[in-house]
Amino acid sequence: MKYLDEYRDEALAKTIVEEIRRIVTKPWVLMEVCGGQTHSIVKYGIDRLLPEGVELVHGPGCPVCVTSLEMIDKALEIARRPEVIFCSFGDMLRVPGSECDLLILKSRGADVRVVYSPIDCLKIARANPDRKVVFFAIGFETTAPANAMAVWQAQKQGLTNFSILVSHVLVPPSISSILQSPLNRVQGFLGPGHVCVVMGYREYEPLSARYKVPIVISGFEPIDILQGTLMTIRQLEAGEAKVENQYPRVVSRDGNKVAQNLINKVFEVGDRKWRGVGSIPKSGYKLRFEFRDHDADRIFDTREIDTKEPEECISGLVLRGVKKPHDCPAFGTICNPEHPLGATMVSAEGACAAYYAYGRHLQEPSLAQAS
């Protein structure tokens, strides 16, 4: 545990909490925008350590959770075709579409495979020249370089039977969307450390200046999150609004230029639908025209599918930080990991899954139970 224990040091955590308690003079609402941070907050009870009035709410930081229902249905439509080998990361297999999920489709005979990298799909495509291999390319900017590399290599190698179904989303436009909402309560952000490893944090500076909100790029361990919270509250109490980097051991202002260049070579920015949120302008990646032969959406001509979220599911409000999982009447009852209504209960990074995994459904009654 060398190099890890120091970020989970109990005495240091107590010192930071006491400093937060000392400087706070008014209520503040902060949002973390990464699912990994959400799980650390719930797992270690960080939100319960903070003084009364300092509230942490959970943002759209889980890439599986924000993948639109329409995109899940497109994946199902492609995966059920007999000529297709449909590949995906494992956490996408149980995300419910309108009728079923990829795991159920697999049980019915569809060739759905779990892979650990999009590059694995190139091997599958070479080994199966008579089949069409499709990779479900979801995620924030963090996973975009690997997906871009897979497409770039496929084109260089002449693998015409490999394509990707692109559902990449971008963090800065989602923050802007949250801040523009009339329901917004958020006054400061803990920024996404892993995204900023790739992209840096330059693009967050205009957001902070425009909306006058502090954004502190934070890591994922308890000390990281507490330090990020302290740095954000210091700004709020001083009336400041700027971008700070709590995670310098990993994140730089400019990020990884090599990865960024590869992303820009293969992808371009376009509008994107977010599950439970709706369409956000210029909030996702799509393949550039020169890589159109590897665009599964074009190859399979998947139609725009009319979908409707379960009425009981409030995942959209959870993803925007308006509600918390235990505010949902279905949480922990008709919606649970075995029978999820929405993606926030399925994904390993989902807020609802985190609350359930660490027993919040046993400790805090839902609104329905309280009424």
Task: Describe the structure in your own words.
By secondary structure, the protein is α/β, with parallel strands linked by helices. The protein has a domain at 315-370. The chain has 18 helices and eleven strands. It has helices spanning 10-23, 35-43, 46-49, 63-66, 69-79, 102-107, 118-127, 144-157, 171-180, 193-199, 205-211, 222-238, 257-266, 296-299, 315-319, 351-357, 360-363, 367-370, and strands at 28-32, 54-58, 84-88, 112-114, 132-139, 162-168, 188-192, 215-218, 243-245, 267-274, 278-287. Strands 2-1-7-8-9 form a five-stranded parallel beta sheet. It has a four-stranded parallel beta sheet with strand order 4-3-5-6, sandwiched between helices. 49% of the residues are buried.
How many DSSP helices? Answer: 18
User: Distance between the terminal alpha carbons, to the nearest Å?
Assistant: 46 Å
Shape: globular
β content, as a range? Answer: 15-25%
**Cα gyration radius (Å):** 21 Å
Low-confidence stretches: 365-371
Number of strands: 11
